[in-house]
Amino acid sequence: MSRQLTDAELEAYFDEALPAEEMARLEEQLRLDASLRERLAGLISLRDAGTHSLGAIWRRHRLSCPTREQFGGYLLGTLDEAAREYVEFHVTVAGCSLCSANLADLRRQRAESADAIQTRRRKYFQSSAGYLRKG
Ligand SMILES: [Zn+2]
Q: Fewest beta carbons within 10 Å, which of 26, 62, 89, 99?
C-alpha cells in the first residue's frame, strides 16, 4: 500500500521539483486516486487563486495524456472505474484540447462504422427480400 502523501510532496510534484522516478510514482498514484487529484487541485487553486483557471493550470502542468487505446476502451465502456475517471478528468477538468480532439475523432469513426453496418444490413435484407419474392 502507498503511504499518504503530504501537501508539500504534492506541491513539489506540481512544480516538477521531484526526481524523475518520484514524478512517475506520484503521477501513477494521481492516476489511480481521485481523492488525491482533488487534493492537488485544491492546493493548486489555493495557490493560484484568482490568477488562472484550474483548466489552464492543468493544461500547463498536465498529467500524461491517456492513450488512444484507453480512449477506445472509454468509448466502449470497457475501462475500469479509475481509468474511466482519469479520462473524464483529463478531458473535462484538465480540458486537454489534444485529447478532446482525439476523443471526438474516435467518436466520429465509431458513428461512421455503425452507419456502415446499418447500410450493409439494409442492403443484405433488401437483396434477400428480392430473392425471396422472385422465388
Ligand atoms: Zn491529453
A: 62
